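User:
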Amino acid sequence: MELPDLSSACLISTPIPRSLLERSRVLVVGDVMLDRYWFGEVGRISPEAPVPIVQVARSEDRLGGAANVARNIVALGGQCSLLGLLGDDDPGRCVQQQLAQAGIRDCTRREADRQTVVKLRVLGRQQQLLRIDFDGPSRQSPSIAGDDDLRQLISVHDLVVLSDYAKGGLGDPRRVIAAARQQHRPVLVDPKGEDFSVYAGATMITPNLSELRLIIGAWRSEEELETKAQALRQALHIEALLLTRSAQGMSLFDAGGVRHYPAEAREVFDVSGAGDTAMAVLALLLATGIHVDLSISLANRAAGLAVAKLGTATVGYEELFVQ
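Assistant: Predicted structure:
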């Protein structure tokens, strides 16, 4: 399946029907995490060191990483399955409980020698004071599913998302991409690392500025950026490269050239998970058959809504479509 032909597409000015989204099925594959929050009040400074003392009043667990992408897809009404690895530990069991509560099809597997990735954020008066990561050494898993299981899982979905956080839980991206393309399913990749060749053959990759700069080097003008981005896209046989640029919005590089999508001006409260939200909206709309221009514009809008919220958050149907 190729990206929609924009030459004959017309922008949709009315909300996309819920029934259309509800029929779309997205498979998310990647690094699954648990986002843990401790909320409290800061009343004094520690006598032991010049740091604030947080009196923790409550805690909250949320799905993170690839699981946050899945959570955002179902929040908009889409169907989603999650394939990834967890540790055989309490955080892993907590993730699986949350997947069930959210209505996400759980295709995760627990491994005894793996530690579930946990990001603990400590907040005082709604301000993040500290983040503590529990993930152990990154260990690349040789396989997250057998070939037959992977092909079967892909066959019952409309689109595949690879959510790579460089935690080793994705397995070999090339296996997933090859299996998906054999069945004519588009593959969207949120990439990481210094080697994008492992994503060769994907339909679209969505690096941010720092991730792309690590691969192609610095650029001094928009013209030089376009030249380097297009060269990378062609070398990797990728149909489109979507560069996310924070306050500058997004830029799409494909065979038709480059198109820019300005960000909607909003107050930034917390950028945690905004990229996951944007990917979820983009994936769900493309799976639905909405053309790429509108899909990116709505993903841009969703990211703007997400950064106005505290922590990893979802964007609902009414927020995105009812203005």
